[in-house]
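Worked Example 4.2. Consider the chain below.
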Amino acid sequence: MGDTFDHKSNIDELIRGACDFQADLIRARAKTQEIYRSKEPVKHNSFRITLDGLIVRTSQVLSNRIENTNEKISYQISLVISFVRTHFIINDMIMEGDLIEAFTLIRKNFESLTRLHEIDSNPLLKLLKKTPNVINLFKEGGKKLYPTLSEIAHFGTPAVGDLLTITSNEDGRVGPSIVPVYNPDAIACYDRHAYVSIYFVFWLVQFLKNVYGEQYDSKKDERTLLSMLRMAEESGIIELKPEEGGKKNHAASS
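Applying the procedure from the previous section yields the following structure tokens:
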């Protein structure tokens, strides 16, 4: 008996299926983003726009020539550019319903931020090929956030599947949606994302001051940063813990 398998028909079917699914994804993501924007609190929206703009403005300073550079600075610049690219990818993922993927990249940026700080205070040879020690650097904030990010990134428990959004079918079946659907956890996911990016901008402004000196006028960025920090506190994105005497110190993740 000859081979009756129709390879051409099979390929045509696979192509149609893949193209149709991609079209479904585009429609689903557009709908999810529309819902996200309608549910995003006004203060969150104002904060998000401010944070994104400040990240862009500060990172673009790096297009200027640095007079005295070295291997550490070059390494840090690469980390900064990667962080910035990833920040905006995460934004899209959160608004479009890809929360597991967003949390996974938040973990990546948390590690990148940790490495930026580690390079400031350690010889490169001590850091190469070693995983950044997030908890050691961020203390309580790291202990609260990093294990959660790792659990999601590794799909460590069945509960992670809830981030896929459980949907009900007319025939009674219940299960995760294969295309992105708005999930109420999206705002909480954004808060974790923002927490990491706030610390990043703090670091970046100081880095620019160090490498550019008087060539970088930091006043506008520093004022924007402080204003943004107040917005983050008012939005519940971060909590500024009071020190003794009523002063406020480090931020804690919400």
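The mean pLDDT is 90. The chain is about 65% helix and 5% strand. Compare this with Example 4.1 before moving on.
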